[in-house]
Structure formats: C-alpha cells, structure tokens
Amino acid sequence: MATHELPKTYDFQATEQRIYSWWEKSGYFRPVNDPKDPGFSPSRKPYVISIPPPNVTGELHLGHAMFVSVEDLMIRYHRMKGIPTLWVPGSDHAGIATQLQVEKLLAKEGLTREAIGREEFLRRTWAWKEKYGGIITQQIRRLGASCDWERERFTLDEGLSRAVREAFVRLFDKGLIYRGPRLINWSPGLKTAVSDLEVEYSEEPGTLYYFKYRMADNPEEFIAVATTRPETILGDTAVAVHPEDERYQKFIGRQVMVPILGRKIPVIADDYVTREFGSGALKITPGHDPNDYEIGQRHNLPIISVLDEAARINANGGPYQGQDRFECRENIWEDMRQADLVIKEEPYLLNVPRTQRGGEIVEPMVSTQWFVKIQPLAEKALEAVRDGRIRIVPERFTKVYYNWLENIQDWCISRQLWWGHRIPVWYCADCGKMTVTREDPDRCIHCASRRIEQDADVLDTWFSSGLWPFSTLGWPEHTPDLSYFYPTTMMETAYDILFFWVARMIMMGLEFTGEVPFNTVYLHGLIRDEHGRKMSKSYDNATDPLIIMDELGTDALRFTLLVGSSPGNDMNLDVKRVEANRNFANKIWNAGRFVLGCLGQVKELETLQTEWTMADGWIWARLQGLVRDVERLFQNHQYGEAGRQLYEFFWSEFADWYLEIAKNQMAAGGERAYTTASTLIRVLDLSLRMLHPFMPFITEELWGHLRKAVLDSPLVSEAADWPEALIVASWPMPRTEEDWEAQRVADFTLMQEVVRAIRNLRAEKNVPPGKLLPATMAAGEQMEMIQAQTAVIASLAQLDPGRLMVCDRLADKPAGHVALVVGAMEIYLPLSGLVDLDEERIRLSKNLTEAEGQITRLEKLLGSPFGEKAPAEVVQKEREKLTGFRETAIKLKGQLDGLG
Ligand SMILES: [Zn+2]
Question: How far is the CA of 446 from the centre of ligand 1 (A)?
C-alpha cells in the first residue's frame, strides 16, 4: 500500500494555508443548526463566543495569539462534540489609536486634521481602514482561528452604529446619561479626556516645594504649605487644615493671599487633611486635583481652571498666561523666591499619572463631558455574579470584580476625537435645548428651529465594545441570530481588561437585553518573556508570533501557549519551548508514518480470533483513562494540564513503548498483525482527535491520510466514524473503566520497570547496543505474567530469549551476577555479560596504580616538615585526601578480586 506513504517530514509551511482555506471554503466554521438553515431547531443549545475585537490598527502580538489559541481550542472541542458552535469575529475601530495613525500620515504631508477638516479627515481614516484594517484579521486566520467570517463585524459598521445610537438614547431617556463639568483626566498631547483606566502611574523623583501663604489681614503671619506642582497655586481657592490641629486654630475662617496673584481665599477646616504630612496645611485646587475637587464640592469652593487644552496657562494665570505648565512651574517659583515666599525644597518621590498611549503626563482638569450614571448599572452587574448567573474563572477574580464595581465612579464617555461614534446630541441655537434621537434630526424637537448643531465629540471606544456580544448578533433588531445565539456562552479574555471591557459588557448586557451577555468569564494570564518581564517593544523582548509561526509552525506556537498557561496566571514564553513542541509535531508525524506503514502490511482475513496482547490491552486502557482525564480537565478549564497529559501519553507511552512492541507484533503477521494494526489505528485516531484543538493543522493533515488509508484497507471500519475532515469528526466519548483495565495497566507498568532497570544497567556498564544478555528472573507472584511476556521483555531489554529464565524464587543468589530489584522481583544478570573481563581488569589495575601512587606521595608529604609547619587546615585537607585515596584503593582491590 505504498500509495498511502507519508512524506518523510511534516512541511507545515506547505500545509497550514492549504488546510485553512479548505476548512473555510467547506463551511466548517459556520454553526451547524444555523437559524438561516431549513430544519433549524431552536431547542438545541449552542456554544457561542464573541471574539475580543482586536484594534484595526493592530499587528499580531502574543496577546492575540494567546486568546485566539484558547478560544479556538474551546470552539473546536465543542464543535467536535456536535454542539452548534459559533465564534463571532470582528475588530474595533480603536478611537485614539487609529486617529493617531492617520494624523501621523498627515504630518508627513505637512498637514493636520484641523487643516483638512472633519469630513476629509474621516474620509481618509476610512480609506486607511479599508487598506490596513484587514491585516489583523488575516493574521488571526494564520493562527487557525475557526471563526465564522461570514458573521464578521466592525464596531463602526452600520448595524453596530445603530446599536450605539439606540443604547445612548435609551440611557439618556432613562436619565442615566448626563452632561456636566467634572474633573477628568486630560491628555494635553491627544487633546482629549482619557478614562481612569487609561492612566498609568509611575514613581518618579520630584520635588516638594514649601512656601508661605501670608495672611490677608496680617502679612507677617503665614501658613506654610507644600506642593509638588507650584503652577497650580494659580488655581488655589482655599487652604485647608485639620479641624483639630492646635497649630492652626487661630487661622480657620480668616483669609490668605494667593502668591503673586494676590487673590484672597479662605482658610477652611476639613478632616481629609493629614496633620503629619508636610506642614499639615493643604492648598486646595479644585480645578486640577481630584481630592481637592471633592473638598471643593463639600465647601462650595469656586473652581478655577488655569490650563488650556494644551496645558498652557490660561487667562486665570495672570502674568504667566501662555506659558507651558512646566515652564510656569519654574517661573512662578523664581518669582516667589524674589517675593520672599519660598521656605525650602525637598526631594520627593512622585506618583506621576501618564497616558497609556503617548506617555505624557495627564492633567486633572475640569471639563464639560458626557457621563453615564453608573451606580444603577453596577448594582445589576454585581448581582449577576453574586447569584451565579455569571461565573468567573479563576474564581479569585470575583473579589476583584466586586471591589471595583462597589467603588465605581461615573463613566466619562465623551472623547474629543473625530474617529468614532459621534454623540447623537444636537444643540439648538435658538431655544438652547438638546435634541437626542436615533435618527439624525433636521430640526430642533423643541422649537423646530433648523439652527441645530451636533455635539463635536465622539464616544469612548469602550461604549461600543460594551455592546459587542449582542450588537454583533443584530441587536437592537430582533434577529434570528440574536434570539438563538444570545446570551453567549463564554467570554474569554486577558485579565487586564476585566474592568475596561468585561464589566462594561455585563452592565450594558443586563441593561439593554435584560440578560447576562455570557455565562462564564474565563481569564487567561499575560505572556512574559523567559525572564518573567512583561513583553514590550521598549524592552526589545517582544517576541513576534509571526516570525515564530514562520520558523516553527503555528501548531508548535499554539501548543506552547496552551500548555504553558493556566487560568489567570501569567506565563513566561521561551522560544526553546516552542522548538521542543515543533519536535513534538515531528514525533506525531513520524508515528503516523509508522502506523500507515503497518496498515500497508495488513491482509484481509476470513475470520478473526486473535486476542489482544498485554500491550494492546494496556495502551487501550491507558487511552481510555486519558479520554476520561482530558474530558474532566476540559470541563474544569484546565486546558494546559490536558495538553501536558496528551503530550506525555503520545510521546512516552504510545511512541516510546507501544510502537516498539507493535513492530514485533506486526512481524508475526496474520491475525496478530491485523489486531495490532487495528489498535494502532484506534489509538492514533483518538489521539489526533484530542490533540486537534491544540494543534489543528498537523492533526488534520495526518488524520486525512489516515482516513484514506483506513477506508482503503481491509480493516473493518465504519465510514461514519471517518467524516471528511477531522475538524468535524466526533470527540472521543469517555467510557467507564472496565474491570480488567487497572490490573492490565499495573502488569504492564511492572514490565516497563523491569525493562527500564535492565536498560539503565546496560547504559551504566556501557554494554554495546545489540549485545543480547542472558538473565534469570525470580518473579514470585508475577511469575505467570512475566513468563507470558518474555518475548516482549527480551526484545525491549535486549536479552537473549534462549537464555532467559523466569522462576518463582531462587534458593541461592547466583554467583558472579548483578542483582536488580524491581518491586518484589529480582533480576540477575551475569557480570561476564556486562563487561569485558580482561578490559575491565586492565582499567581497574590502572586506577589502582594511580591511587597507590597518590597514597605514597601524600604519606611522604605528611611525614615531612610540611606536616608540622604548614597551617593546620592545610594539613587537614591533605590528610582527608589521603583517607579518600586509601578507601578508593580498597574498593578497587575488591572489584579486581570479584573479577576472579
Ligand atoms: Zn430649539
């Protein structure tokens, strides 16, 4: 049957693309029982995942590779179980990231977005998206992602834009969206508000500046105050002290003068002030500090903003107007020094807020923005996890989730960008009222004036991605997809976007659909380099998954990511692991070649009566145990452990042991060969099915060859067991363990230990491979079993079958033998067989001469004046050496005597 011979090596480069196109063309990524199909049955429960939409600006990194691997594994497993399975793909318009890309291109032409205007800018951004937006989804395909691409969505496409409008208007009508001045994080570089979650804090050296707040009624008196940002003095509206601070009682209620500006502001008492920090008095700048903002609200203080949108000092800053914030910091401090207002400066460790994108320092600023009143939404989202409608894996993140939602602040949803969902609010120039509608209005709904203008801002990207699980299925329309596939089943993502995204989907899902958007949240860890550092371009340690796939294959990368990870824990990626798993792929291929070769030797039989050998029964029982374990581990989301067990089974049991034994069984021909080939096929078939979700390409390719060979062979096999592709073949069903299995596994394990013990001895004694040794085994209660396996043992341990004796027990220990003890068994191998006696005698004599030479030398040395004059510890060292050589000499003499 040479027609089914496999190529010698597995060529992943020639295979992956071909297999993927074939899957996609054949429609395997579409759900079975699609609501669009005739005969659709709504009662079959589907398994659904919505992909975490990558940014359209994205280039594949290991984070993508990770979630695609895990989700594809989940999807393939359920698909093979015959469950209607849908994985919805798509991408996110990624407001800031995309806008920056296009602005960068404009800058090269010497243009800005303001120069070309909003309409032209959006036209260019769409053109950019058409050109580059598909790159990331193409790269995700390379990972083997079996998404239903016919259902691919984009957060700015027409349907999703309608969903965003609907969501905004509904929240607005319910009074859950409001507009107002609030302190927000402002990015002066990006000129937009950024959310708390987009701000990263870094510890940096700075200065604590101490200065005088002179009393307005008596400039001789002053309160010492400290700040890290002197430019904010310009916006101070009070000085606060602790109400019980003895030092400051006399100042409370009086007024102080703002340095340089001379404005009068009150001294107030608030127990937020820490008496021990700095001077114990706090300047209050409600316009530029979140804590001061709170205090300002409590005391009804005015809010003075001193910065413009580029973080330059505005008109409120008097003489400093127009200066950059850091320039002003130096200048005002110098002017205060001249005015004798400076007390001292101290080095101080700052916690500096910087934007995730761009990295510049964020400025807290008061700005008029749109907010979602989050409390009512958060309560429902807390409830859904508390009552078990949503389960978070691993469970420890549940607490983190509660904690965040219990302390949540209103969500600032407006962004001063152009790329995104424009806020559906129109302001009337005549009556001043707002029109908020689903359809673009042409007049004010209050006074019918046509002089209306839409809000210039767009919505936070997370507003649209918060609707993702249902907007992608057609919401707000009542589509067949929405009613069948929603709520989805599994939300799988990295734990670092639990709040950014997962919590918001839960809040929005409950608000708009009345149902949880998914039943389970599975959080995987972040990938770090082999030293445990976070992968980042600035560390230059970012491993490019595209290069790894080019060099080592997609399967090897996927297997490494899946096996190296456990829920919620970070993993270190070492390219050496990927190489090892490339070797595993080759091992699978070689095993496949061997099995197909065996299949070619099988002849048709009239009848079949041959029973299984012990090895056949063992590998079958082990395989069934593996099927049960993998099933249990998958149910518990322990995919990494399942992969490790599959690897161990395939390599250490099937390839290393069973294939070796099968060679001999095939050589026996006839019924034995037939039975052996059947076993080989079954084990390889089921192994490939279970490995498929981990390594989809090589398993599909090999299984295809196997299928053809089996269907063409004389082996009896149901064609129904061999559908046209592995991706849609059935998942192995766990069977309950049968009575004989445990004993068979125990027997075989004992036999393995016997073989291993003999192999180790051979290696230790350098017995040349191929040299057959005689052996005597006292097997006790295992005598019968071992006797039946002598041929197998002899073959695996390279014993001479003609001189292999197995008995119950031996009266005397045979002389001149080495004894090995395995459990209750004893194995004797003649020493003369293990070593060449003459050579060994020469080697031992040589070693003895050397040892005796050392003894003589050391005895002489220690007898000389050295023994008395040298430092005690040096002499002691030499004595120890002497004792060592004496012991060695005695051992060597004994061994020489033993040789006879
Ligand atoms: Zn109006």
Answer: 5
